[in-house]
Specification:
The complex is a heterodimer of chains A (199) and B (201). Chain A is an alpha+beta fold and 199 residues long. Helix content of chain A is 55%, strand content 16%. The chains are: A alpha+beta (199), B alpha+beta (201).
């Protein structure tokens, strides 16, 4: 059975098993649990006390609580990842055995936060190091120990980059002569034109 | 199998015959903490003061006891083997039973601890990827070159932290990698592997 929210693959066995655990909750409580899980996926942190209170009626043990949070996380993040629309998600979840009221609640929460989830997932995507800050200074060299009269401008560039492999901030300082800087500026403007043409 | 205790070890442990069994149990607890967290001289000093013995004697007794428990756990001695090994120390029957109880209680906890001490290779933790298309570069405009960037997160078990390795792969390389990994998984189903797994069980 291929499911769109699993990326056109089979649904994992543990998801099938835990959907029956989810069905033990009332649909109202499940919608509130969805809201908590969505907060966690959007990076706002999850309030485990609230989750415990929500699942207390259905007498969930700690293993059941973890399982239901995990399965909701999986369903919501995968649905956002594969950009599944509300109706398909609803029909697929009902095929897997989630009761209709639960499915409606889940899909409503998903639809509300759909774009926010996709934004957050885009931010979390792999990036090979990010440029954090650029600062520059233009100097004018008058003379040096090698040559008495130089009279040339030069640019000092400080690039603060978040390292790709380490994740820590790395600083690079370069000084660029006038001609080299003109070449650099021209090439970067060409790259910028290319990027704009793609947008 | 039987443990063979060196003369020095026997000398250290003989201190235990002069103290009460509850103290031996206390020593056992200190010994287990030693494995988990290391030890501090204060504990030995307090025990030495209470028993009226020197700090070194207490320390050697505790370390001797810890070594005994460690060696027994390493070889997973059964009860009879353990009792036979400590018979040579000439302790009273009550002391032997106390030591046996100590060993049985702690063996369940000590073996996982010992497993962590083995040298480890970096372990796979997670893999993030992104698919990019190289449209143009400073050298060549108007290209269409798909490239996958992989970030492999590895962790070293126990104390070591995690490290990240960045890799890039063209689609052909990625397909080759996939087929190689699937081939590796398929060897699990081969008859040779099945025979080995059956015999390990």
């Amino acid at each position: 059975m291929r499911f769109r929210f699993c990326g056109d693959l089979d649904c994992p066995d543990w998801v099938l098993a835990e959907i029956s655990t989810l069905a033990k909750l009332s649909s109202v409580k499940m919608k509130l649990l969805c809201a908590q899980v969505l907060k966690d996926l959007l990076g706002e942190g999850i309030d485990y006390d609230k989750v415990t209170k929500l699942t207390a009626d259905a007498k969930f043990e700690s293993g059941d609580i973890k399982a239901s949070v995990a399965v909701l996380s999986f369903i919501l993040s995968n649905a956002a990842k594969h950009d599944v629309d509300c109706e398909s998600l609803s029909s697929e979840l009902q095929q897997l055995g989630l009761p209709k009221e639960h499915t409606t609640g889940l899909c409503k929460s998903y639809e509300d936060k759909h774009s926010a989830l996709r934004e957050r997932l885009k931010e979390m995507s792999l990036r090979l190091g990010r440029l954090e800050a650029v600062s520059w200074r233009v100097d004018y060299t008058l003379s040096s120990s090698e040559l008495r009269d130089i009279n040339e401008p030069c640019v000092q560039l400080k690039l603060q980059v978040q390292g790709a492999e380490s994740g820590a901030s790395e600083t690079t300082v370069v000084s660029v002569s006038a001609e080299k800087f003109r070449v650099l500026l021209c090439e970067l403007k060409q790259a910028q034109n290319l990027m704009n043409s793609l947008q | 199998m039987l443990l063979v205790l060196s003369e020095q070890h026997k000398g250290h442990l003989s201190f235990m015959s002069s103290v009460e069994p509850e103290v031996v149990a206390e020593f056992g607890r200190i010994a287990l903490d030693f494995l988990r967290r290391g030890t501090s001289p204060k504990i030995y000093e307090a025990a030495a003061r209470k028993l009226g013995a020197s700090v070194e004697q207490v320390q050697r007794a505790v370390e001797g006891l810890m070594f005994l428990v460690l060696e027994s756990c390493r070889h997973t001695l059964s009860e009879t083997d353990f009792l036979d090994s400590i018979l040579v120390l000439g302790f009273s029957q009550e002391l032997n039973n106390t030591l046996l109880q100590l060993y049985l209680q702690q063996s369940a906890q000590v073996r996982p601890l010992l497993a962590q001490l083995a040298p480890t290779l970096p372990n796979y933790h997670s893999l993030e990827w992104r698919l990019d298309v190289n449209m143009s570069s400073r050298a060549l405009r108007q290209q269409l070159c798909p490239v996958t960037t992989l970030c492999l997160s590895l962790s070293r078990g126990g104390t070591g932290g995690s490290e990240r390795r960045l890799l890039q792969a063209r689609p052909a390389t990625l397909l080759h990698l996939l087929s190689a990994l699937e081939g590796a998984l398929d060897t699990l189903k081969s008859s040779h592997t099945r025979r080995i797994l059956r015999n390990i069980k």
